[in-house]
Amino acid sequence: MKVVVVGGGYAGMYAANRLAKKVKSAEVTVINPRPDFVERVRLHQQIAGTAVAATPLTSMLRDGITSRVGTVEKICDGGVRLDDGTSLDFDHAFLAVGSTVVPMPGTVPVGTWEGAERARVALAALPASSTVTVIGGGATGIETAAEVAGARRDLRVRLVGSSVAGIFSRRAYRRVRAGLERLRVDIVDDGVTEATDGAVRLRSGAALASDLTLWAIVADVPDLAGRSGLQVDADGRAVVDEYLRSVSDERIFAVGDCAAVPGARFACALAVPQAAHAVDTLAHLTEGRVPEPYSPRYVARAVTLGRKNAVGQFTRPDDTLRRWYVTGRTAVVIKEMASRGGKYGARTGTGA
């Protein structure tokens, strides 16, 4: 059985390694645009120069899995066509291309490897007393602003968002903002309508000077599913059935951010469980067993605030917030364990 995994992120790597373990008859090929597995949750550290967020794919794949560097142009009837004109046939495919960023003109995106590298180089070149503006009040923006502020104390760092830390309960919200303020991050609760060379203009009409403006909003997905004729939702995510199979082609599983799973939001925390469930479904079908429907289950939301602080907010399985949260070193340890666990799972295809 030939299985092609399109995408080498958390979901794709986990799926490939778990397939090699659980479906012994599978000949697995992973196709990824770059030769590295990129830890999306560490790109803010890559930008600030406090960690490296890339690991060679070949060091993370189980023996027997083939990796190929390339971009899939289209998923055809039982095959994928690459940008170099070649094609690969499959019996089953896993679409795991994740999410992407469409930045505002005049900004540098931080949610992709290429954007993070551009941001790292630009940040390193900034002289003391320069101003860095981070646009985005969610986890990506908070962690980017905090990491930059902690690593470059000689810069002025500003975080702009319609509701900075609004994803947390009131008490955790205050803790996040207090942590940012301790790092001397200026918080601006406003939207941005325009970014130009040297300034950003706010929805309120104010204009703020900015020597480097970073776009920290991840809200889009690659258009591969739609381009391939698969049914997609209004956001371009592949519509799937209760087993995470494309409703247009049952041979194709869609997992991670690119899958339109009811109740799921963009989150690396869901990439691994979805990949695990999809692989187990294929294993069950191969063995003639009845698979179980997938249901997303959340545990927590967490953000790091530099190297020594973090805030973790516990959630119910449906992602509604619980009252309990943790801060400080305890939250840092939890976040680091989750990050390392995600990479370990992607490397081994175990757990979940």
Short description:
The protein has 352 residues and is an alpha/beta fold.
Structure description:
It is a single chain. The mean pLDDT is 92. The relative contact order is 0.16. By secondary structure, this protein is of the alpha/beta class. Helix content is 29%, strand content 27%. Strand 21 and strand 22 (310-315) form a beta hairpin. The strands form seven sheets. The protein has a five-stranded parallel beta sheet with strand order 5-2-1-9-19, covered by helices on one side. A five-stranded parallel beta sheet has the order 10-17-11-12-13. The protein has helices at residues 10-22, 43-48, 113-125, 139-151, 170-182, 224-227, 268-286, 328-348; strands spanning 2-6, 27-32, 36-38, 54-56, 66-69, 72-76, 79-82, 87-89, 92-95, 108-109, 131-135, 156-161, 185-189, 192-196, 199-202, 207-209, 212-215, 238-239, 252-254, 259-260, 300-304, 310-315, 321-327. The chain is globular. The longest helix has 21 residues, at 328-348. The protein starts with a strand and ends with a helix. It contains eight helices and 23 strands.
